[in-house]
Design brief:
Blueprint: H1 3-30, H2 35-48, E1 52-59, E2 62-68, E3 74-80, H3 88-94, H4 101-112, H5 119-136, H6 141-157, H7 165-190, H8 195-203, H9 209-220, H10 224-251
Helix pairs in contact: 1-2, 1-4, 5-6, 5-8, 6-7, 6-8, 7-8, 7-10, 9-10
Length: 253
Amino acid sequence: MPMDTAAPQHAQRTDLIIRTARLAGRLLLENGAETYRVEDTVSFICKTGGLTDVSVISLPTGTIYSFVDEDGVPHSEVVRTKSRTTNLSVVSRVNAGSLSMEQGFAQLEELSRTPPQPLWQGLLANGLSASFFALLFHGGGFDFAVALVCGLLTRLLGLLFSEDSVSSTLYALLSGALSAVVAVLSVRFFHMGNQTPIIIGAIMPLLPGLAITNAIRDTVNGDLVSGVARTAEALLKAVAIAAGVGTVLALLH
């Protein structure tokens, strides 16, 4: 094959590999994947595409990787990730199946365009989670109903905030405060129920349980920077929730 034909084909192939690895890493980080999973996936895509000397470092806010293409030219990529949420379905689909590079990139593009969860599903899940947690903590029927309302309200409140760190922390603070206000005022107005299981049930869906789990996993795995960063972010959200609830209880005492 003539060199002038092979060079553009190599460049196109390398570009496809880079775009596939970039998109896969971004989708994993945005949807709550562990650091090791992001590194393994990006590294696997690059090596499968024929790239050599692949090195990948993943952090909660982005991924850095370098490699050498088929022509011996070194490359490096930095993918910044600002939006982070939890969607394990996306994480599972990114790592599912054995496809060609072209098919994999097409599937990842389709996955990135997948519309978010319908609002009614989010409301139903959040409301029922809060209400059944209230029952779990020895609440009654009234507590179940009020916790359901709290879950619906906090989910609606989330529509006003984006998923970056500042907004998510503010959302946690205001959600904790809103849950406490609804619980305290409902118990006082109707003279029945117990505000404690209502508040606990309402804030349980807000707690960063997966973030803490991933932080521990990263730390044990030796990814200390990611482990510390994820731990700090999770603790910040937990403190914000507690601060919101505590402030309202102190003011309405």
